[in-house]
């Protein structure tokens, strides 16, 4: 059985689990930008307006813990880190595209 993700408690339904997993001001923009391919933290800072480095790092860590993204660290100087979507993260992108289409109906 898959290990429980960070946000799950025994009494939550699947929808609550999903919403808790993507809750956070920057998580959806992070996933959206990662859909184009692997990203380094400095790229997120350039591409997502007003994101704070500390908050970005916290949200990336949570998303990694939840299995949405994978982190690859390179043993070099200066240190290099890249993030990619996992299979679970790629499935979330599909859902976000559908949610985007639904949002258009509200405009």
From TrEMBL:
Keyword terms, alphabetized: DNA-binding, Transcription, Transcription regulation
Xref: InterPro entries: HTH_HxlR (IPR002577), WH-like_DNA-bd_sf (IPR036388), WH_DNA-bd_sf (IPR036390)
Record Pfam families: HxlR (PF01638)
GO molecular function: DNA binding
Domain called HTH hxlR-type: residue spans: 13-107
Protein name: Transcriptional regulator
Lineage summary: Bacteria, Pseudomonadati, Bacteroidota, Flavobacteriia, Flavobacteriales
